[in-house]
Specification:
mainly alpha, Serine Threonine Protein Phosphatase 5, Tetratricopeptide repeat, 2 domains, four-stranded mixed sheet, two-stranded antiparallel sheet, 27 helices
Length: 529
């Protein structure tokens, strides 16, 4: 299913947009795999009461289902792989996942068999959700409205808990107790809860006797939401985030819903913010021990910069970019407002203005001694240099220093941006070295593989370039595309093949593996139909 296309769900041919309606995507997935359930092999370690009767979808089936969904999501125009945002989101996500593992919420089997990956959408609506297989989605709109890293962590911890508590599999258990014709009503009701603009669907979902089944399913989901609240609160506390961010986020969303919700807050529908839930979280906060005097996992200033970046990236109206740019030029503008102005100038194509302002911001007194800020600005300045037309780029001494620092950086943004700068400044060998070491540790980084392919091409290494391109397809689950690229590599002239016999052997082996995986995927899809 594609984010930007309409998919047909169930026997009614109901059009939905899966990215817009995370709960529906989950329910559709559950419907497809409903027959594939068995007794859980690993007892859950949480002391929380369990919902359902213990029959759950296998982890392998859930992962295959998640992989099937994200293969389409990766190809959608709304999918965004922004290295700077990716680094920030990982800085928030990693301690949450580590805390969940430490607490026993994510047993070893779940940790190894599920993906535990974040995907970002350009959508400006406030939304986030969990998909089967350990994939989580975050809209730019959600990141843009959060005021602190604790608020963002509360959402991610909540969604993580949906996965760790096997809520998707438990929904399948519940659905298996209903007649097949009633399951369709549950899907419709979930869509109605998640997309208020679709009034026809709301009416259809509640029509006739199927409303009983829909109401039952929504009640079950509310139990899951409360459970995810409780588990998520403990996870974010143990990860080092302030638990008060949970209630703060609830209150922010509820207030927005009262004042101006025009359908831009689907999170409020898939995750109903009842007074009972908010009161429950406040009561739990009152019982929380006093927070330890320890450094937060990420700085509040880093969060504000990334929230502003998300806001500008999500905005598609040039008039608003112009407004932000003009506001940042005023003498009383704050450093954060000047940063937003520089981002707006970048979107307007005023790359030189944006780069000049970014260089001045690097000397901002309140930012100069903050390592996270300096790293963000270092990476951003390389990004702005790359955004300039080729004829305007100048390889200054500063740029070469940024490049060398980025090539040594542990951050993904530093590695990828510095490798691009190296490629354009005659340092292809350095770009190849840093990217090869990166993909060894991060084999599912499609962007890194694609960039490595470009570096190999620039160096005249045709076989290596094709193999890296195929690995980029593999990283996003495009097994058919990967097989096509590998076959093309085998069709290169014999002289090219013989020039790199080791790479030739690797390509032969990878093609065999990819073909076998493609056959498995096709069997799974045929079984689902």
């Amino acid at each position: 299913m594609m984010w930007n296309q309409y998919a047909q769900v169930g026997t009614r041919g109901l059009p939905i947009r899966p990215w817009r309606s995370g709960a529906v995507a989950v329910l559709w997935c559950a419907l497809v795999l409903a027959p594939q359930t068995h007794r859980a092999q690993t007892p859950h370690t949480s002391a929380l009461p369990q919902l359902g009767d213990g029959e759950v979808m296998s982890l392998a089936a859930e992962r295959r289902l998640g992989d099937q969904i994200v293969r389409d999501l990766y190809r959608d125009p709304d999918y965004l792989d922004d290295p700077l945002l990716s680094d920030y989101l990982q800085a928030v996500w990693a301690p949450l996942l580590a805390a969940a593992v430490e607490r026993g919420e994510v047993p070893a089997e779940l940790r190894t068999q599920l993906a535990w990956e974040l995907l970002v959408s350009r959508d400006r609506r406030v939304n986030a959700f969990a998909l089967p297989g350990g994939y989580l989605g975050v809209h730019l709109g959600l990141l843009a409205v959060t005021q602190t890293p604790d608020e963002l962590a509360s959402v991610l911890a909540h969604e993580l808990s949906h996965v760790s508590q096997r809520h998707i599999a438990r929904m399948v258990t519940r659905q298996n107790q209903q007649a097949p014709w009633m399951i369709g009503a549950m899907i419709l009701a979930a869509l109605a809860a998640n997309a208020s603009k679709n009034t026809d669907v709301v009416g259809a979902a509640m029509a006739g006797g199927q409303a009983v089944a829909a109401h039952s399913q929504l009640g079950f989901s509310r139990d899951m939401e409360r459970e995810a609240d409780r588990v998520g609160l403990s996870v974010m506390r143990d990860a080092g985030f302030a638990p008060a961010g949970f209630v703060g986020m609830f209150e922010r969303l509820q207030q927005a819903s009262r004042l101006n919700d025009d359908g831009a807050f689907p999170y409020l529908r898939s995750h109903p913010l009842t007074t009972e839930r908010i009161a429950d979280m406040r009561a739990r906060l009152a019982l929380e021990p006093a927070p330890a005097d320890a450094a937060a996992p990420v700085s509040a200033l880093w969060h504000r910069l990334m929230a502003e970046r998300a806001r500008v990236l999500a905005e598609r109206n040039p008039d608003n970019w112009q407004t932000w740019w003009r506001h940042g030029q005023q003498s009383q503008a704050t450093a954060l407002e000047r940063y937003t102005a520089a981002l707006a100038a970048w979107r307007l194509g005023r790359h030189t203005d944006a780069l000049d302002l970014a260089q001045r911001l690097a000397t901002e007194p309140s930012w100069r001694n903050d390592p996270a800020m300096q790293q963000v600005l270092l990476h951003w300045r390389m990004e702005l240099w790359l955004a300039q037309p080729a004829a305007q780029r100048r390889a200054s001494a500063d740029l070469l220093l940024w490049r060398e620092a980025g090539l040594r950086s542990p951050a993904r943004a530093g590695r990828l941006l510095a490798a691009q700068v190296a490629l354009h400044t005659g340092a292809g060998a350095a770009a190849e070295s840093t990217l090869r070491s990166w993909v060894v540790d991060h084999p599912r980084d499609a962007a890194a593989w694609q960039l490595l392919s470009q570096v190999h091409d620039a160096q005249g290494h045709a076989l290596r370039a094709r193999r890296a391109q195929a690995e980029a397809r593999v990283a996003q689950g495009d097994w058919s595309g990967a097989a096509e690229v590998l076959r093309a590599a085998q069709a290169l002239p014999k002289a090219v093949q013989d020039s790199d016999t080791l790479e030739q052997a690797i390509i032969h082996s990878r093609l065999r593996e990819v073909r076998e995986r493609l056959r498995e995927v096709m069997r799974d899809e045929a079984a689902a139909r």
